[in-house]
Inverse folding.
């Protein structure tokens, strides 16, 4: 694996990660995102519908929370989780948890971490964890770590220190076990930076983790509400400053467009793509613009459209809590609203996705009102494509030194 | 200008069915329907996409499976989103973006399935909408009007449907009323050049009533006939006899659509009895319960026995699900909340039904349909002689013996 940076602008890293995968010939662009999956499958999508989407990332994210309980099956299967789920050509990253469904806190000990599957809690010591990874054989995997320093209201220094100590201990144990495993020689351990909101501990975590032979770094514990991320951005800069340039930096739990840009500016390379999924689950379509150099007449149209939608959303935002415990954002439209009943436009004018090329807002509205399964399929196809297009726009903006314009455009659309 | 049916004018209705082959023993036929949105090979199984969607699969996926005709439902679509909106969307084809053929039911069957919400009079069926409590009258005229707005290639008359378990004078009343409603539908039909109105033979399980209905309805100038009022709670013995009676009295040069039939054995037997078209929610519904259809029956993939079964659902199946996935993976996915699991099975089950019909058709064209039936029963039941007695009798009645 080799990370080469094309340029670094105001803290933002543009580049490629090459020589990835079992055959060593896959490439990933950074900044970029990973394909979000649930139990090894993109939500709502079969191979057929997934492959209709343009710009699907080369690497997919699997979650141990959905796969750990199937350890025995995968071990007997022998050929690795990629083949088992029908994605043998995809690069795979295995995270501990699912960013959308946080697990109950209080189950991390000095010896084990727990994840929560359909069948309940799966407790993993370092050995069990590595045995599971042997059965999965992912390209990258998040090391066993203690991510609960930020779970309580007030994060104590003691708890922050413990999260760093435990995570380093887990890391050293797992690295040792990896040495003894032939099957895992081709997989890369991603070291996890912990430390809660305590600067000293964060720096210690970064420096110590960087000393180990990890393939990259996961910045854990920066997720939360929009306000908590903002207060942690300062911490984030300090952490990434301690990390080696030539290894990728992933962040978990951050997926909204405005937050993504903030993190890229602070040295983060890779993100999870669960935001489009959350929008899908609340019956919403991503419509935010990332076209920072539009034709002048269109600017006016888009601005008017955006402003109207933002105003509308501001008034009604409070009542939009969903089962994902996530409120609707100003980056999307809610197709269940009556005003879309007779709207025969596509979700986003000019969008090339299967849904926008074939269907209308009115049809999506009907599918949502009648609770039809196809709503989720079509929205997921659009939302993923739109989101992947956003990341492409970030890379292009960085390349042509126009990130400030893109940032301003996104900022205007954030409420 | 509506065409008024006169009892003797049998020649002017469009001939939409071209017969390609007939079994020399049984009544099985292979043919081709010529419909406004393209040809359809028969015998054909039509998946049901009630509310302008084939559940979790896209129009493109359905097309890729080879489906060329599917169903929409007038009752549901008439309520949501309503005919006016669909008309603005360029008909049901435009609304759901389906390039091939559509058949819409009249809404009559919901009378039986949702009977607590309805009242039948000579005028029509009075429904109370389950969504907003509003009362609507579904008359023959209104049903045709909605279907004209939907623009489906085949539309069904509004029939007075009674459950096949009902006996007594109600059955006779419903049969005669269906004939009168057929005439009203024919009179109200605004687009006979673009949409094919089918009659629906009623009469319950009473041979005399059914025979009367057949005699009367075949005097009407319609491009096709459906056999209705069956596939409910009746015994299979009664069922096949009514199907056989119907096909014996229906014109050969028009399609016979047996409504609500979809189990593999039933399809094969009813093709032997002379039916051309079938529809049923079973394959798509059972998929959403984790059940995959195979030549030997079905696999309940949520069961533990499939946890480590690394084979595809059916090694002979060419569908995308079987090409890419194992029973074990589907088992795992079915136990998650990812709806993709349901879609994988929906795709497979539709593929299974279409492949079955394709195989049936090929055997008729190649003059080996009776052998096909014997092979089919052997695979399904272990031995052709172990097939259910009703099926054995039905097949024997058209010259096919199984053992």
């Amino acid at each position: 694996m080799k990370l080469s940076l094309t340029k670094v602008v105001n803290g933002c890293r543009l580049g490629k990660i090459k020589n990835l995968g079992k055959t060593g010939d896959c490439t990933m662009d950074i900044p970029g995102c990973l394909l979000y999956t649930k139990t090894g499958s993109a939500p709502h999508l079969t191979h057929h519908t997934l492959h209709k989407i343009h710009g699907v990332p080369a690497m997919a994210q699997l979650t141990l929370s959905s796969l750990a309980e199937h350890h025995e099956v995968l071990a007997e299967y022998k050929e690795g989780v990629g083949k088992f789920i029908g994605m043998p050509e995809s690069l795979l990253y295995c995270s501990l948890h699912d960013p959308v469904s946080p697990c109950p806190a209080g189950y991390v000990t000095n010896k084990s971490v727990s994840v929560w599957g359909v069948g309940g809690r799966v407790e993993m010591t370092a050995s069990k964890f590595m045995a599971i990874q042997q059965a999965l054989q992912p390209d990258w995997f998040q090391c066993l770590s203690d991510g609960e320093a930020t779970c309580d209201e007030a994060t104590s220094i003691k708890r922050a220190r413990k999260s760093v100590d435990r995570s380093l201990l887990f890391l050293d144990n797992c690295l040792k076990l990896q040495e003894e495993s032939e099957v895992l020689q081709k997989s890369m351990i991603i070291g996890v930076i912990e430390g809660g909101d305590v600067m000293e501990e964060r720096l210690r975590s970064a420096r110590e983790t960087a000393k180990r032979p990890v393939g990259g770094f996961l910045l854990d514990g920066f997720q939360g509400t929009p306000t908590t991320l903002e207060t942690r951005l300062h911490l984030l800069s300090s952490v990434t400053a301690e990390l080696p340039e030539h290894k990728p930096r992933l962040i978990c739990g951050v997926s909204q467009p405005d937050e993504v840009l903030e993190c890229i500016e602070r040295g983060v390379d890779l993100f999870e793509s669960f935001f489009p999924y959350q929008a899908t689950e609340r019956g919403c379509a991503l419509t935010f613009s990332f076209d920072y150099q539009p034709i002048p007449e269109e600017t006016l149209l888009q601005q008017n459209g955006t402003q109207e939608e933002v105003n509308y959303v501001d008034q009604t935002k409070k009542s939009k809590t969903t089962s994902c415990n996530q409120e609707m954002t100003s980056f999307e439209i809610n197709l269940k609203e009556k005003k879309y009943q007779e709207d025969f436009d596509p979700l986003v004018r000019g969008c090339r996705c299967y849904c926008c090329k074939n269907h209308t807002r009115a049809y999506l509205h009907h599918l949502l009102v009648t609770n039809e399964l196809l709503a989720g399929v079509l929205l997921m196809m659009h939302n993923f494509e739109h989101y992947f297009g956003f990341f492409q726009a970030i890379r292009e903006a960085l390349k042509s030194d126009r990130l400030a314009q893109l940032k301003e455009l996104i900022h205007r659309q954030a409420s | 200008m509506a065409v008024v049916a006169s009892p003797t004018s049998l020649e002017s209705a469009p001939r939409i069915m071209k017969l390609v082959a007939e079994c020399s023993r049984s009544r099985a036929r292979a043919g081709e329907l010529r419909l406004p949105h393209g040809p359809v090979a028969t015998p054909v199984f039509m998946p049901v996409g009630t509310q302008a969607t084939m559940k979790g699969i896209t129009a493109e996926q359905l097309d890729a499976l080879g489906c060329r005709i599917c169903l929409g439902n007038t009752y549901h679509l008439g309520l949501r989103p309503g005919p006016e909106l669909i008309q603005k969307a360029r008909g049901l084809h435009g609304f759901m973006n389906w390039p091939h053929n559509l058949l819409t039911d009249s809404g009559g069957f919901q009378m039986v399935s949702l009977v607590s919400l309805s009242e039948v009079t000579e005028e029509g069926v009075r429904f109370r909408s389950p969504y907003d409590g509003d009362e609507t009258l579904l008359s023959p005229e209104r049903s045709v009007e909605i279907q004209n707005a939907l623009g489906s290639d085949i539309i069904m008359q509004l029939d007075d449907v009674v459950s096949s378990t009902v006996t007594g004078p109600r059955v006779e009343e419903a049969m005669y009323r269906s004939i009168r409603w057929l005439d009203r539908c024919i009179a109200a039909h605004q687009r006979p050049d673009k949409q094919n109105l089918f009659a629906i033979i009623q009469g319950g399980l009473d041979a005399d009533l059914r025979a009367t209905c057949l005699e009367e309805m075949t005097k009407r100038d319609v491009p096709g006939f459906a056999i209705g009022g069956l596939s409910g709670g009746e015994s299979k013995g009664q069922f096949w006899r009514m199907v056989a009676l119907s096909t014996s009295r229906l014109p050969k040069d028009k399609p016979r659509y047996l409504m609500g039939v979809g189990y593999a054995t039933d399809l094969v037997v009813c093709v032997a009895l002379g039916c051309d078209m079938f529809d049923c929610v079973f394959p798509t519904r059972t998929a959403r319960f984790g059940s995959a259809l195979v030549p030997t029956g079905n696999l309940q993939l949520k069961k533990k026995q499939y946890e480590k079964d690394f084979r595809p659902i059916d090694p002979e199946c060419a569908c995308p699900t079987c090409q890419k996935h194992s029973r074990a993976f589907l088992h795992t996915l079915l136990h998650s909340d990812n709806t993709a699991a349901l879609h994988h099975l929906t795709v497979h089950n539709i593929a299974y039904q279409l492949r079955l019909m394709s195989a049936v058709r090929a055997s008729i064209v190649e003059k080996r349909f009776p052998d096909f039936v014997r092979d089919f029963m052997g695979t399904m039941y272990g031995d052709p002689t172990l097939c259910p007695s009703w099926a054995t009798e039905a097949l024997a009645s058209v010259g096919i013996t199984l053992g």
